[in-house]
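As a warm-up, study this chain.
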Amino acid sequence: MPATPAKQPCLISSFKNSFPVTATTTDSSLPGINNSAFGVSSDRFLVSLVIHHHCKGHPETHPSPDVLLVRSEESQVKKPGGSVSAGVSLEFDVPRSGTQVSQIPQGKGDTTLTHTGKEEERNSCTKEVCHTEKMSSPVQLFRDQKYHELKRQCIQQRRLFEDPEFPASDESLYYQKAPRGNVEWKRPKDLCQDPYLFVNGISSHDLHQGSLGNCWFVAACSCLALRKTLWQQVIPDFKEQEWDPKTPEKYAGIFRFRFWCFGIWTEVVIDDLLPTIDGTLIYCHSNVENEFWSALLEKAYAKLAGSYEALDGGSAADAIVDFTGAVAESIDLVQGKYSETISEQMKLFEDLLKVHRRGGLISCFIASSFGRANEVEAKTGLVAGHAYSVTAVRKLHLGERLMFSFKAEKLFMVRLRNPWGNREWNGAWSDNSEEWKKVSIAERKSLGLTVENDGEFWMTFEDWCKNFTDVDICRIVNTSYFSIHKTWETKMMHGAWVKNSEPLLNRCGGCFDNTETFLQNPQYIFDVKKTEDKVLISLQQEDRRRCKKVGKGDNIIIGFEIFKVEDNRSYRLHKLTVQERVATSPYINTRNVFLKKILKQGRYVLIPTTYLPGITAKFILRLFTDVPSKLRELTADKPEMTCWSLLCGYPRRITQIKIHSAEGLQEQDGSGGADPYVLIKCENQKVRSPVQHNATKAIFNTQVIFYRKNIDSPIIVQVWNSNILCDQFLGQALLAASPSDPREQQTLQLRGRGSQEAEEVPGHITVKVFSSDDLVEL
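Now compare it with the structure written out below.
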């Protein structure tokens, strides 16, 4: 990203809930790096925040301890001329009116926002500090339909939009199974008197499933409705799209929605013609007659999938990823024995609690038993073969005061919603159960407890683990430098499994079990720079729903393997010798496969695969790390031969070395230890291992690979002791590394500098060496 210019316009947005705001600025340059109590940092600039509270109308201010920073996020807004306004949005809990939030850049100028709204149970305010820079648009247009241009044409011609790309016809409804009844396509104005996109805002209670078997989609929408920043991405400029009864001539019957399609935000334009039978919406609808956001969102998603019928059966995790770009993880609760193992149950609860608190979305599912029908209600009130959205995750304490009694009974609770809008759990802690008598009416209200048959209910986490079989966790991975939470470095790569009869060109070799072809898959290399780093990896295959009508809509089985490789590898793997297989993802026929793993410092090769060889498909690979990973695809099999190769020479031999350990090293400090590392030299190349502290017996497990031009020159392996001022040489071993050398692990005596006959010194190293004159053998 280009460096921020020295001076940029500083824009301040209004508070949430339409609170009045005053904003002034005399200079917007933000050169300083200075944290105050609520500072947030960035590679580009840092904004320091000072929170004040006005006392009884007096002009003086004092710090307010009641203001709490609860969320921050980056934003980008496309401006005319191709520029983009990008900045940080900071959200605070403000307990009462009269609270002032000041942005004080280090240098000239100041900007002040004052909240003067009414006191509410929970007031939130948002401040955006923006700077502009040139950036290409990140949104692509589905079927190249331009919303503003189409809307302008309709208004000028005084007609309502009819979408030629998704017409009001049978082909948009189904490809195989027609709905029962006479379908009529009607506009919202034909279904009610005062149609609106939203009535009294947006809520997870707005949606009901309808006759299509897409409870997974409705569950995902219910999750989406909980997060304002997320649904506003999916429904851009929602106020501009809303019906305005004062200016009916500006309504053109056209809407737009955005979905994260295979790594790219995609805008889908639709008309407002909706399928009905006997004047009633067939599919997803609101519980309020004149609210239509859910029905229109479903239509846009059906257009993307090819038809409404293509949405019959699916995964809530897939829809959430399409809504948000989240990283989806699917967990089999039965296979993981979460109902039996309390320790694993508690780990999962803490994970769900963290995901929910940080804006993630969660859904769950009850798989039907073999031979039993889907969506059948059990005695517990739960429905098998049915998706539910998780709307809250809470850790409660029962006692004199809920949540504040540290000696009280502790409860782990989840709140769920049935997309049908009824049929609730009837066990412990259900709406009318005896357990709620332990809790006061006020406390029940704070939890959002209702006794209506509205489809939303509470369960203990233990009961949840016993009754549900699968959970989909969708993490909104934080990549913002402005966040108070952990910031992840992200890298995304598009790739494909492509078939070719030439082994070196084939890229669909199947899983690890296919030993002859496994390494013919795409290969991606990345580095772990820290001593240890937690990495998140997501592999996603292309959405195949549009292929359902030709019988090819099923997901293929995919997964990936991770190998720790040579620290200096830059060409494709051709044979597994010294490399360590450190991780294997699940292999499953879901659109997304996820793995979370702690990796040690070093270089790794990640190999995404289909389960069976010879299957072609596209995929995207996403890697999240604490520091930049330099993820890149390995495409070359060996060094390229150029015109310079005639002058400087071309490699004749490939040598692979693994330094396992060093023992018996000379003591270097008073405690009898040393801080050794190894340095491997080959021609003009050097590779150094990490330092092993306080050890005369050090385990290195360092791997290196060299493409050698001068095969008569030995490879030198030196052992050094790390010191503050000057490192000390401890000894070395020389390796001829010829193809005829034994490939078994061997122990070599350390010697002083010089030839192979140099004087012996204390210590020896254990190594394994592979050499070949075929540059694509290793």
